[in-house]
Amino acid sequence: MEDSHGGRPARRSARATSGNACSWALPTVLLCAYGFFCSVRPSEPFLTRYLLGPHKNLSETEVFNEIYPVWTYSYLALLFPVFLATDYLRYKPVVLLQGLSLIVTWFMLLYAQRLWAFQLLEFFYGMGTATDIAYYSYIYSVVDINLYQQVTSYCRSATLVGYTVGSVSGQVLVSVAGWSLFSLNVVSLTSISIAFATAWFLPMPQKSLFFHHFSSQRLSCEMKVMDCKNGAAVQDHPDVQRAPGWEDETKVPLNGEGHPAEKQKQKVDIAKVLKDLWQDFVQCYSSRTMLCWSVWWALSTCGYFQVINYAQGLWEMVLPSHNADIYNGAVEAASTLLGAVAVVVVGHIKTSWAVWGEVALALFSLLIAAAVYVMDTVHNIWVCYASYVIFRIIYMMLITIATFQIATNLSVERYALVFGVNTFIALGLQTLLTVIVVDASGLGLDIFTQFMIYASYFAVISLVFLVSGICSIVESCRRQEQVQSRSPESQ
Prior knowledge:
It is built from 16 helices and no strands. It is mainly alpha-helical.
């Protein structure tokens, strides 16, 4: 709407810019503080040692085959309801639920003694993991679209730094200061409690991506996560300068006639939202490129979860902690930092992923399979540590490429949907793998046999994408030849 008085729009724009800077800075700082303290868990790299040791005195079968699988089942069962609840409740309540779930988890980790109590503990930990989506999506409801990439990097960096600080401090406290693992869990519980207290100060968002948004703006402004060429957040309609519905409700008209002075609420139609989600799902996965990267995401994430969940168990079998010092915390910190460096490096690699992406996925998946195979067969703790670091670096690098390829041409809503679906499929596959291979009610295989299966699993992924990649390259070459053969005829 144009203003008839000269100069007012400029003054309003200046005030709006200042107000926007203040409005996004506070929630970003609070959310990053929450993510940091929530990730500072110095006891986590030593969890298996804690459960098998004198503090809890659980058996290997109880820990690997009866307790750990509960996390996978609960994560899968809670993911879709949490995905919908996060958007419907507008993020903050689910962020608080995550903090509370983790507090319960670590409190039980300190004082639980019976098998069923530890299985219940894993359920709460699964809830804490499933609600992680609220942490990463909250910030999009309170900042301008042009700041999405910036604030996303802040939030992810906060968790990365927190995890690294937790791993390093845990290793130092165990190896140098001689702290008990019980004390490390007390530190973890304290840090999570600080995060939970911080979350209460987060402003309550007025909008969300699916259930609470302005339909008129959704039609007029298709939000893009990032532009393929320059990595910046963009909009399909450059004339629309405001964020997609995150301003004060009194300033945004809900229909074509416009009532800026009135607060109007949109009635939430859950059936319509679910129908729209299904239509978006069909449209997203009709793209071969999208389908290819999503399939790799789901398959590899399934295997990644299994390896990191049971890596501590493998290390404990290779070198029992009661016989020697272990360096799990240092290894976790090193793999995280080196993985972050690899992610930065891969962001500057310029190549045609549309042509060579599948072959690259095949080759790197083969390297992952080799790393897991070496971890399993070479019973040397330092070789295991090195293989684990390589495994995590390659996965973090590839998942970054996959995320970028998927996000490039998707709106924020569709990216959230694809991310949720891919994760759900990964957890479904992981659940199937856990029931057959790990769970005591299934085969209940020992840890070394499990890792041999995981290595074979990644080898199969590599073979599938190698065949698909070769077919794609051959098809691309044929199309180029056809275009070149037609060019002289047209002249």
